[in-house]
Amino acid sequence: MKEFFKDSQFSFQTLRLLGETAWGAADIGEVLETIERIKDGDLESWCIEWTKTAERMDKFAQECYLDGNLISAAEGYLRASNYYRTAEFYLHENLEDKRILELYDKSLECFSFVMKLNNPVIEGIRIPYEGTSIPAHFYKVDGNVPRPTIIAITGFDGTKEEMYGLGMAAVKRGINCIAIEGPGQGEVVRKQNLFFRPDYEKVITPVVDYLISRKEVDSKNIILLGESFGGYLVERAAAFEHRIAACIANTGVFDFTASKTSPDLPKEELIKEITKNIDEVNMELRKSMEISNEMRWAFSHGMYVFGVKTPAEWLLKAQEYCIDGVYDKIKCPTLIIDCENEDLLKGQPKKIYDLLTCPKEFMMFKAEEGAGAHCEVGGKLISNQRIFNWIQKIIIANTNS
């Protein structure tokens, strides 16, 4: 991967943005010009400079909107929304920072204009969930004919707005897409203070209930797709929600914490060791957070979205996110995706793929395709194309059965 910074986290997030130029959620010059102003490894500098870029694009989009240049306005608002999201990305170490909600609200506000100006219009909906509701964006193919529909869920740190490219790619192919956020994600954690839960079928089942109530949805072709940590969430959901026609884990996950803990220590012993030595574990983890932005962000964001106060608490909580013991309950055709240069979940996709007993396929993305990084960031066009080719194969098989 191209090193835009010495800091690997900053480089990865830059590539993530450049990949989103494929559907207009960023522009190459805007990204490269902004990172030139950012001090390498400085989280405050990252926020300040991306805020400046977001505000400039937001102002441009507003001017376009007021002048009646609505296509330009929609394009500008899409980039502004994504840049505000990027500016807010590293702020979760201090939950008292007012910029968390200020920047996030600006991102949502900009995307609200995208939704109403987009063609097709993106429908904002709320799905009943355990006495409250979860937000979603519905990308609907024109007409009221029942269509295959993808439930798209982000992962550890993404948002439903980032699923715009996937949603539009689906509609082009005659497939509806509903991009959702559940506990631990997007506005559900920021606005409702609902944190991740391991039994994610409890989140997905209400979404399926909602979809089968819509006349535009073919209830026999509801496909579940999760990105990054969302790979675990969809695997878990598919194990218990059997109205799902197919499951796509991009990236496949067996044990979410395996790469962050000792691989030689059985999980039960690891939990005992952390619990017994919790003060020492916290001290060591905080030391690692001081010297590595990757660790600093992973643990500070992890504490935020899991609703805990210390790094050791998060590590203990995250042990629950393992598909062991339920993977054999997955019955639908399942696509497990891996990347040649996968580092965040290295080895996890192959492990879960080998264990699955359902109809399954393994898809590897290579560096030579420009898609070798985690979740194919930087190579989202070839990623979408290969994934949708698999989806079309599943739909055809279901139609002919």
From TrEMBL:
Pfam families: Peptidase_S9 (PF00326). GO terms for molecular function: aminopeptidase activity; serine-type peptidase activity. Keywords: Aminopeptidase, Hydrolase, Protease. SUPFAM superfamilies: alpha/beta-Hydrolases. InterPro entries: AB_hydrolase_fold, FrsA_esterase, Peptidase_S9_cat. One of its GO terms (biological process) is proteolysis. Residues 206-276 form the Peptidase S9 prolyl oligopeptidase catalytic domain. This is Dipeptidyl aminopeptidase/acylaminoacyl-peptidase related protein.
